[in-house]
C-alpha cells in the first residue's frame, strides 16, 4: 500500500476500515531535518510496510516517533522502527513499562480472554496483527514531556488527555494546517467503559478551535474544515 499525500508535508498510511482489525492510520511529517512518525502501527509488520512506503516516496528518513497514546494499536510497531527517538506524554511511561513486562503470545491472549471476555475484541485483533512474536517487545518512550513540546522540525505536540487515555496528545503541523488527533475524543476501550460513555464532544469542540484545515483521527477518513477549502 502506498502512502497518501494529505497536505503540505503530511503523508498518511490509511486506517483499516474494518473495525475488527483495529489498525489506525500512521502519519509521516516529512522534513529534511528528519521525518516525524505519528504512531508506530499496530505491529512490527505494519511498521515495516510503512517504512517501505516511505522509501518508495523517497521521503527523509524518520528521526522521531511520537505516540498519540499508549494503546497497543498505536505502539506495538515501535520495535521495528530503528534510529528514532520515541516521544510521548509522561503518563505513558509507567503504563507501557507494565505492558512490556507481560508475556505476550497467542497463548497469553487466549488465557486473558478466557479470564475476562470483555477483552475479546481487542485481544482477537492483536492475534490477527501478530503472526510472529519473534523479537517483539513493547517499547516505552525515550523522551517524555508534560503540557506541550515542539520538535526541531516545528511539529507541535500538545497533551489533551481525556477519557480514552490519560496520556492522549495531538500532533499539529501548522505548516501543513493539519492536526493528528489519535483517539482522544473516542470513548474508553470497551473493557474499561462505564455506563453509556460515548464520543467526547467537548473534546471535539476544543480541537476545532485550533482553526486548522485538516483534522485526522486514527480510525476515520481525514476531515477537512468547511470554509478552509481554498484561499489559504
Unreliable runs: none
Distance between the termini: 30 Å
Specify the CATH architecture.
4-Layer Sandwich
Oligomeric description of these chains: single chain
Structural class: alpha/beta
CATH topology: Metallo-beta-lactamase, Chain A
N-to-C series of helices and strands:
EEEEHEHEHHHEEEEEHEE
Protein name: MBL fold metallo-hydrolase
Domain Metallo-beta-lactamase: 24-219
Organism: Kribbella deserti
InterPro entries: Metallo-B-lactamas (IPR001279), NDM-1-like (IPR050855), RibonucZ/Hydroxyglut_hydro (IPR036866)
Q: Secondary structure elements and their pairing?
A:
Elements: E1 4-7, E2 10-13, E3 26-29, E4 35-38, H1 44-56, E5 62-66, H2 72-75, E6 85-89, H3 92-100, H4 106-115, H5 120-129, E7 143-145, E8 148-150, E9 156-159, E10 169-173, E11 178-182, H6 201-208, E12 214-217, E13 223-224
Parallel strand pairs: 4-5, 5-6, 6-7, 11-12
Antiparallel strand pairs: 1-2, 2-3, 3-4, 8-9, 9-10, 10-11, 12-13
What does this structure look like?
- This protein is of the alpha/beta class.
- The model has no long low-confidence stretch (mean pLDDT 95).
- Helices cover 23% and strands 22% of the residues.
- The protein has six helices and 13 strands.
- This is MBL fold metallo-hydrolase.
- Residues 24-219 form the Metallo-beta-lactamase domain.
- Pfam families: Lactamase_B (PF00753).
Amino acid at each position: 500500500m502506498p502512502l497518501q499525500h494529505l497536505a503540505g508535508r503530511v503523508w498518511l498510511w490509511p486506517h483499516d476500515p474494518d473495525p475488527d482489525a483495529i489498525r489506525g492510520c500512521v502519519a509521516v511529517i516529512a522534513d529534511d531535518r528528519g521525518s516525524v512518525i505519528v504512531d508506530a502501527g499496530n505491529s512490527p509488520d505494519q511498521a515495516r510496510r510503512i517504512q517501505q512506503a516511505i522509501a518508495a516516496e523517497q521521503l527523509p528518513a524518520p528521526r522521531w516517533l511520537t505516540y498519540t497514546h499508549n494503546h497497543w494499536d498505536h505502539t506495538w510497531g515501535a520495535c521495528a522502527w530503528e534510529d528514532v527517538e520515541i516521544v510521548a506524554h509522561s503518563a505513558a511511561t509507567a503504563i507501557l513499562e507494565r505492558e512490556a513486562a507481560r508475556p505476550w503470545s497467542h497463548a497469553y491472549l487466549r488465557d486473558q480472554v478466557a479470564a475476562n471476555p470483555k477483552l475479546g475484541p481487542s485481544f482477537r485483533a492483536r492475534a490477527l496483527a501478530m503472526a510472529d512474536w519473534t523479537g517483539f517487545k513493547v517499547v516505552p518512550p525515550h523522551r517524555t514531556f508534560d503540557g506541550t513540546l515542539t520538535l526541531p522540525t516545528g511539529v507541535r505536540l500538545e497533551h489533551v488527555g481525556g477519557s480514552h487515555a490519560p496520556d492522549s496528545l495531538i500532533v499539529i503541523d501548522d505548516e501543513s494546517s493539519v492536526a493528528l488527533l489519535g483517539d482522544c475524543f473516542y470513548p474508553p476501550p470497551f473493557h474499561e467503559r462505564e455506563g453509556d460513555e460515548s464520543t467526547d464532544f467537548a473534546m471535539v469542540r476544543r480541537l476545532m478551535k485550533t482553526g486548522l484545515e485538516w483534522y485526522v483521527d486514527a480510525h476515520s477518513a481525514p476531515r477537512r474544515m468547511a470554509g478552509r477549502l481554498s484561499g489559504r
